[in-house]
Amino acid sequence: MTGRRTLLHVFATFNVGGPQIRFAQLANQFGSCYRHRIVSMDGCSQAMDRLLPGLDAEMLPLAIRKGKTLGNIPPFRRMLRQLQPDLLVTSNWGSIDWAIANFDHRIAHLHMEDGFGPEEAERQLPRRVWIRRLALSRSTIMLPSRKLFALARDVWKLPARNLLYLPNGVDCARFLASGDPELAAAHGIRRDVPVIGAVGGLRAEKNLHRLVEAFARVAAARPAQLVIVGDGPLSGPLKEAAEARGLSGAVVFTGACPHPEHLLPFFSVFSLSSDTEQMPLSVLEAMAASRPVAATDVGDVRDMLAEENRPFVVARDAGLLGEAILALLADTKKASAIGRANRERAIAVYDQSHMFDAYRRLFDGKLNIESVVP
Known about the structure:
It is a single chain. The protein has 13 helices and 13 strands. By secondary structure, it is an alpha/beta fold. It folds into two domains: 5-169 and 352-363, 3-Layer(aba) Sandwich (Rossmann fold), CATH 3.40.50.2000; 172-349, Rossmann fold (3-Layer(aba) Sandwich). The longest helix has 18 residues, at 332-349.
């Protein structure tokens, strides 16, 4: 093909989440350099709103039979032949059927592996391990966390030469602002008590019920407010959980917020309560906004944070998480110093400028670029 390269991106869903936000960062940065064709396996397209006007980005219609992997392979192969993309870019387990459809590797393939749903939070499923081992053996695999890199090498047994450790990045300059007081007020965010904030999809693996329980312990010890930014299928149950604990007046659910930088500056402490993560963008954004973080010890979260913040990364337990939040609230000077250290680390290690160059080479077809093995 001539001219701009055509990239076919396949997602299990194109609702807003970490992989989709990263794609929007990249597509917006590279502008008209590429043609982006997007497949959303569940038909959702909410993240299209994150793309700048004028991009050559199109959502392709797709008819699939859910749970019928073998039955979906022929139409996927036909679609690949018709479109003839220069690069197939798949994302996580939910798009693995496309790697299988490309079994002869006619199309160069980049697979982005960001982590797992609740079904693989505790252990790897043997069937999925074998499918990944077979379907991805000749592909380039992008892994944003050290733990994922080790898993792909040691458990999936993928060739180390095909594995690329490439941390996520964030626009640190975007998070320099002091926030939007009017938006904060519109959501009922208080200024007279400490605010514990979380940003993310309201899904099972984020275990925001744990955060609600941790906040109940905080609220029993001192006045405070919990602000949960995001939307998802567990919105209703989480509101019910807060009400059942007598916290409905102290817990705010803002719904989806495409610009978390407007609200992050009003958080005294950012909290992550997930059962499974690898390298969450929400934590990077909190770091860029100079927030101290209380988090569960999942994925690379401990290593991501400034050293001063690491004592507040705890086991997946509501009581321990509540204690970490209370400890940060108890010493505001120390918490502010931790926030500043987090921002310095975000700028030095995780600014998005570091990731753009690597992705430009990947999208240009230079799939054999080397990374520092973690």
